[in-house]
């Protein structure tokens, strides 16, 4: 459900494309921020697989600010957390985005576990 009661999953590259598309429409980016701020759980897959551009970083900052202490956000990534700041551009906006993530987080590190590889092998074994 898109009323915020169900979890919502999106891939970071897809979200970045939505930001680019929304930027060309009046009120497009604020509408996108409102949409993603309403979910009780927002799961962002492929987090920081690509280096975000400035409009995407601004959306992330606003989104993390709105979700802070009100909703849960899960980040699925193969990028080590120590690399997040650099991948976000290493600037003041990167500081602000991470400030809203790292100080209110429960970390679950799966180590070298690869869900796709594991499920792919299970499918091959059956």
TrEMBL record:
One of its GO terms (molecular function) is ATP binding. Coiled coil: none annotated. Residues 13-119 form the IstB-like ATP-binding domain. It comes from the Bacteria. Signal peptide: none annotated. Transmembrane segments: none annotated. This is IstB-like ATP-binding domain-containing protein. It comes from Bifidobacterium pullorum.
């Amino acid at each position: 459900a898109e009323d915020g009661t169900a979890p919502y999953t999106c891939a970071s590259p897809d979200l970045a494309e939505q930001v680019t598309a929304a930027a060309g429409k009046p009120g497009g980016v604020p509408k996108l921020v409102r949409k993603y701020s309403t979910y009780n759980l927002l799961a962002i897959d492929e987090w920081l697989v690509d280096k975000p551009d400035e409009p995407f970083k601004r959306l992330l900052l606003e989104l993390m600010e709105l979700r802070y202490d009100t909703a849960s956000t899960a980040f699925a990534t193969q990028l080590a957390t120590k690399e997040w700041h650099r991948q976000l551009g290493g600037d003041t906006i990167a500081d602000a985005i991470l400030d809203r993530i790292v100080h209110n987080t429960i970390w679950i590190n799966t180590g070298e576990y690869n869900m796709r590889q594991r499920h792919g092998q299970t499918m091959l074994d059956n």
